[in-house]
Structures are given as structure tokens and as C-alpha cells.
Amino acid sequence: MRKVVVLTGAGISAESGLKTFRDANGLWEGHDVMEVASPEGFRNNPALVLDFYNQRRRQLLEVSPNDAHRALKDLERSFEVSIITQNVDDLHERAGSTHVLHLHGELLKVRSSGNAKDVSHWKKDLHLGDLCEQGHQLRPHIVWFGEMVPAMEEAIALTRNAAILLIIGTSMQVYPAAGLMEFVPRGTPIYLVDPKPALRTDPNKMLKVITKNAVAGVPPLVDQWLREERPL
Ligand code: APR
Predict the structure, then answer these.
(1) Measuring from atom 26 of ligand 1, which residue has the nearest CA?
(2) Which of 2, 96, 99, 212 could make an S-S bridge to 217, C-beta 3.0–4.6 Å?
(3) 173 compared with 195, residue with greater pLDDT
């Protein structure tokens, strides 16, 4: 089966009701990003950071995947689909996608502040005093600004083998995620679905931009690929 790598950002979850980061009323409203999404911010005011993620976790439990998430599940009928997402929501998993790699962590998991490998599922609010078994404060399992992106190596390996790269709903402003498209084999078709696309051309001239919202743009593209078995 041909390998499709899908790089998604906050835009694919926008129509599920989750705000993006850099649109006008972005998620950081009222908060400086370094205040709520950096190790320094957590050290300076852990209660503020824990409350910020508690609000996002509660909201995530209220929303559902949309037709763009579901179309990516359907794509698995005829393609080997690997989703590399910058999103910390679990909407790809809830839509049924079977191979999802989270570059920036997962909102429904927490980890020990003393041992990054001690990760557990967590759906309720997280408070100061919620400790791991070794007595360290639990923190959101999120990659904060300035922290390493452990899944990047695996993401690059997947992208190197892509027969098609599909990019959905990302401003391509945050590295190293934004640099992934450099790793596709030369001549690989790249599709970008975004109402305000961050890219217009690419050096290989293999980029096709679909200037639409994810829910309008992704299902028809997937249907076309499934019908043709071989994308244009
Ligand atoms: N459908 C598709 N794309 C959309 C939609 C939609 N309905 N609405 C907005 N978009 C697009 C915007 O045009 C923009 O290009 O989604 C993109 C959102 O960009 P950002 O808000 O920057 O989100 P993202 O690219 O995922 O941010 C990357 O930055 O803040 C950090 O760690 C955080 O993972 C995040 C990373």
C-alpha cells in the first residue's frame, strides 16, 4: 500500500470547536504563551499552568472529531496512513485513525516532573499536590516551548518514506514540525488544505494548495484518492 503521511495542526480541529493558536482570537488570549506553555512558566506559576490545561482538557472532553478527521480514517482503506500531528487533542484517535504520532504531546496524559518516561492517562483536573509514585509533581504531558520534541526522529523517518504528503491546518511557523516537508523524497506530491495557506509554492513545484477549511477540503480529496487508487 502506498504511504500517505499527514501533517496536521490546530486548523483540523477548529471545526470541532477547538481554537487555533494564531488566528485572531487565538488560544493564548489573555495569556503570554511563555506564561502557560514553557518550563519557566510552570516553575513561576504552576497553578496557573495547571489551570490553563485543566480548562483545555475539560473542553476537549466536550467536543468530537469532525468529517476531516473521519476522512483520514477512511483513507486507511487503500493507503498506509501515518498521521503526524502537532495537536494535543485525541480527535484523530477518536475518529479511528490507527497510526497517530503526537509531536507536541497529549492533553489526556500527564507525566512525572521527575521522570519524563513516567506517563499516564489523565482525564480529570490536575492540581498541585497530585504526585507520581516517586513523589514528584505531575505535569501535563505536553512539549512546551524550549523543550525537545522526542517524536521528531520517528516523524522524519515516516516522512522520508511518504508517497504523498498531506498538510492540513497548520501555519507552519513552529519548528521542527514545520521543517518536516523538507524530508519528503524529491518529486513527492504535497497537498495543503488550509483557508489561509501558509505556503504558496515549494522548490520541487509539487505543492497543490486547496484553499478551503478542513471539513470542506479533506473529504473530497480523500474520496478522489480512494476512487482513483492513485492520487493525481
Ligand atoms: N480548516 C483548516 N485550517 C484552518 C481552519 C479550518 N477550519 N481554521 C484555521 N485554519 C488554519 C489557519 O489558517 C492556520 O494556518 O490552521 C492554521 C492554524 O495555525 P496555528 O494556530 O499556528 O496552529 P499550528 O500551526 O497547529 O501551531 C503549531 O504552535 O502554539 C504551538 O504547540 C503549538 O502545536 C502548536 C504549534
Answers:
(1) 9
(2) 212
(3) 195
**Would you say residue 171 has pLDDT above 70?**
yes
Query: And the C-alpha cell for 106?
Result: 497529549
Tell me what the mean pLDDT of segment 36-64 comes to: 96
Q: Is the peptide bond before 176 cis (omega within 30 degrees of 0)?
A: yes
214-228 and 67-74 are packed helices; what angle lies between their axes, rounded to 10 degrees?
A: 20
Overall domain count for the chain: 2
- Which of 16-30, 57-71, 88-102, 124-138 is predicted least confidently? 16-30
Give the model's pLDDT for residue 169.
98
Q: Which residue range is the domain that position 34 belongs to?
A: 20-62+110-142
Residues 14 and 24 in one domain: no
What value does the mean pLDDT of the chain take?
A: 94
Whole-number Å distance between alpha carbons of 159 and 162: 5
CB neighbours of residue 192 within 10 Å: 24
Residue 85, classed as helix, strand or coil, is strand
Return the pLDDT at 29: 58
Residues 197, 168 share a domain? yes
DSSP 8-state secondary structure symbol assigned to residue 176:
T
- How far apart are the CA of 132 and the centre of ligand 1, in A? 33
Q: What confidence score (pLDDT) does residue 26 get? A: 57
Distance 7 CA to ligand 1 centre (A): 11
Cα separation, 184 vs 153, whole angstroms: 14
Is 61:32 a contact under the CB 8 Å cutoff? no
- Residue 175 grid cell: 519548528
Q: Give the number of the atom of ligand 1 that is nearest the alpha carbon of residue 214.
A: 1
41/153 same-domain check: no
